[in-house]
């Protein structure tokens, strides 16, 4: 099979590798669509994200879906030809976090495209069957790949306790932020206020269900949010950009007794926050790391047609064009929303 391998920062080389053979409990999937994530771009450009460092050639890509090509001897839930989405984090199932149902915190998780684990920029991938989920006919492979970033929004909704009728501010309309709009909508948020610098992203957020879109390049987001909420502030704020100023704005936008979820990972470790405001207003703050137990719900929501998420895919590339895909995602922040790679040809 063909694989796109990151050999050093800013260099992806096509290599021929053997097709993996599924082990006892594994499913071999013919990969049909892979979304390019911000983490892929960081590894491609810088060779690291925080404590995760690329020390040898690695295959990127973890937002993926495809068709079952073969199954291991112990697999009972799938058969060749099944259309599936892949959850990329294979947890140990034995540690305290796994046993508590918070397997996203498993210290031994093997997450696709996180060093040293290879990812999905390949024609075939083998993965444990409990990380594979059937998708209905109405859900395209592209939409099924988007269940992965959508799951981050679902985890934020779960962690911050979104309820029907809530007002929410989402800071940052990258792909995760845009899918977070859909998650907030799915959980019944009444008013969804979003912020970003790029008009194309703000327009996309409005198409997905946002109530108000604020361009922070020409207005103060906190002032605008308080104006839109009659001076009260939002019930919930999510920071999805990994930007210190957006994080500070999120806290300043929350009402007294409100909640806040931090989704984005900033480049630096230490960020100034208004702790007196946090304490005086008794704001609940939640960290969000990936997701757990979200895929069945995510597939159900996206299959319902809750939003036209396929419209987010602005750029399409073959596997042999993986480097061009990464460059597009890296350099064209104002014109691209979601870059998709098709390892086995673009689905008809």
Structure in a nutshell:
This protein is of the alpha/beta class. Helices cover 28% and strands 28% of the residues. The radius of gyration is 20 Å and the shape is globular.
Structure description:
The chain is α/β, with parallel strands linked by helices and 348 residues long. It contains 11 helices and 20 strands. The chain has helices spanning 38-46, 96-99, 141-145, 147-159, 175-186, 199-208, 221-228, 244-253, 275-280, 295-303, 322-331; strands at 2-8, 11-16, 26-35, 48-49, 52-53, 58-59, 63-71, 83-86, 89-90, 110-111, 124-128, 132-134, 167-171, 191-196, 212-215, 234-239, 254-262, 284-287, 313-318, 338-342. Strand 4 (48-49) and strand 5 form a beta hairpin. The longest helix is centred in the middle third of the chain and has 13 residues, at 147-159. It is globular. The mean pLDDT is 96.
- The coarse silhouette is globular
Query: Can you give the mean pLDDT?
Result: 96
Topology, number of strands: 20
Derived from helix and strand composition plus strand pairing, the structural class reads alpha/beta
Seen as an oligomer or otherwise, the chain set is single chain
Number of helices: 11
- As a percent range, the share of strand residues is 25-35%
The biggest beta sheet reads: 7 strands, mixed
Termini separation: 21 Å
Radius of gyration: 20 Å
């Amino acid at each position: 099979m063909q694989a796109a391998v990151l050999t050093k920062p800013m260099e992806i080389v096509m290599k021929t590798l053997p097709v993996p053979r599924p082990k006892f409990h594994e499913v071999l999937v013919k990969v049909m669509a892979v979304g390019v994530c911000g983490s892929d771009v960081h590894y491609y450009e810088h060779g690291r994200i925080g404590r995760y460092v690329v020390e040898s050639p690695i295959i990127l890509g973890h937002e993926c879906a495809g068709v079952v090509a073969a199954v291991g001897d112990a697999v009972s839930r799938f058969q060749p030809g099944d259309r599936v989405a892949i959850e990329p984090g294979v947890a140990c199932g034995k540690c305290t976090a796994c046993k508590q149902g918070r397997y996203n915190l498993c210290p031994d998780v093997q997450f696709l495209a996180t060093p040293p684990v290879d990812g999905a920029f390949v024609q075939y991938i083998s993965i444990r069957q409990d990380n594979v989920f059937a998708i209905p006919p109405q859900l395209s492979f592209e939409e099924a790949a988007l269940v992965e970033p959508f799951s981050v929004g679902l985890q934020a909704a779960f962690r911050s306790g979104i309820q029907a009728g809530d007002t929410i501010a989402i800071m940052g309309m990258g792909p995760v932020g845009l899918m977070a709009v859909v998650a907030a909508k799915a959980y019944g948020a009444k008013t969804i206020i979003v912020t970003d610098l790029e008009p194309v992203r703000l327009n996309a957020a409005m198409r997905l269900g946002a109530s108000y879109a604020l361009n922070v390049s020409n207005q103060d987001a906190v002032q605008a949010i308080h104006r839109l909420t009659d001076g009260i502030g939002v019930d919930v704020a999510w920071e999805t950009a990994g930007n210190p100023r957006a994080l500070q704005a999120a806290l300043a936008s929350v009402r007294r007794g409100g909640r806040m979820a931090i989704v984005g990972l900033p480049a630096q470790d230490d960020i100034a926050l208004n702790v007196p405001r946090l304490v005086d207003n008794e704001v609940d703050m939640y960290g969000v790391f990936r997701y757990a137990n979200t895929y069945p719900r995510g597939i159900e929501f996206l299959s319902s047609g809750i939003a036209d998420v396929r419209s987010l895919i602005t750029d399409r590339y073959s596997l042999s064009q993986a480097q061009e895909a990464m460059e597009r995602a890296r350099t064209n922040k104002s014109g691209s929303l979601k870059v998709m790679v098709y390892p086995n040809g673009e689905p008809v």
